[in-house]
């Protein structure tokens, strides 16, 4: 698991590229002053974006397969990841932020729709 990155993943880099191309630079990466340190934050608009990998965060859309070996370990690991994600979202929403979760599979399948959703959130903030 050492080789798995926590930041600057391919989906994160791709989303940042798409946001810049759409005319929405000015974000902060892993901004420490926002609760939960979102992957991408627009502090002035109070919009936080988490870019989740389908395997690690248990995507509800593509439902990745569970590992066959060490099922107890992985079950606990995935549960803790989901609890942490929910806690971060709750903290941000309590602080008045709009929180968006971008799933790796959705970004791959329909990047325009993902960016459109983010732009709508930024415009309404």
List keywords for this structure.
alpha+beta; Endonuclease, Chain A; 4-stranded mixed sheet; 5 helices
Explain this structure to me?
The structure is a single chain. This protein is α+β, with helices and mostly antiparallel strands and 125 residues long. The chain has one domain (10-124): Endonuclease, Chain A (3-Layer(aba) Sandwich), CATH 3.40.960.10. It is built from five helices and four strands. It has helices spanning 10-21, 54-57, 71-94, 104-109, 111-124; strands at 28-29, 40-42, 47-52, 98-103. A four-stranded mixed β-sheet has the order 1-2-3-4, sandwiched between helices. The chain is globular.
Secondary-structure blueprint:
Layout: H1 10-21, E1 28-29, E2 40-42, E3 47-52, H2 54-57, H3 71-94, E4 98-103, H4 104-109, H5 111-124
Parallel strand pairs: 3-4
Antiparallel strand pairs: 1-2, 2-3
Order of helices and strands: HEEEHHEHH
Shape: globular
Tally of DSSP β-strands? 4
Which sequence of strands runs across the widest sheet? 1-2-3-4
Oligomer: single chain
List segments where confidence is low: pLDDT < 50 over at least 5 consecutive residues: none
Q: What is the overall number of helices?
A: 5
Work out the radius of gyration. 15 Å
Taking all residues together, what is the mean pLDDT?
95
How large is the share of residues in beta strands?
A: 5-15%
């Amino acid at each position: 698991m050492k080789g798995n990155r926590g930041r600057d993943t391919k989906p994160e880099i791709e989303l940042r590229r798409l946001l810049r191309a759409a005319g929405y630079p000015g974000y902060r990466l892993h901004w420490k002053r926002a609760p939960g340190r979102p992957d991408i934050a627009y502090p002035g608009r109070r919009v936080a974006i988490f870019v989740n990998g389908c395997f690690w965060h248990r995507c509800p859309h593509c439902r990745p397969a569970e590992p066959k070996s060490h099922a107890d370990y992985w079950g606990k690991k995935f549960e803790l990841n989901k609890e942490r994600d929910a806690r971060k979202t709750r903290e941000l929403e309590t602080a008045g932020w709009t929180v968006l979760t971008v799933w790796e599979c959705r970004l791959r399948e329909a990047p325009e729709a993902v960016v459109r959703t983010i732009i709508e959130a930024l415009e309404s903030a």
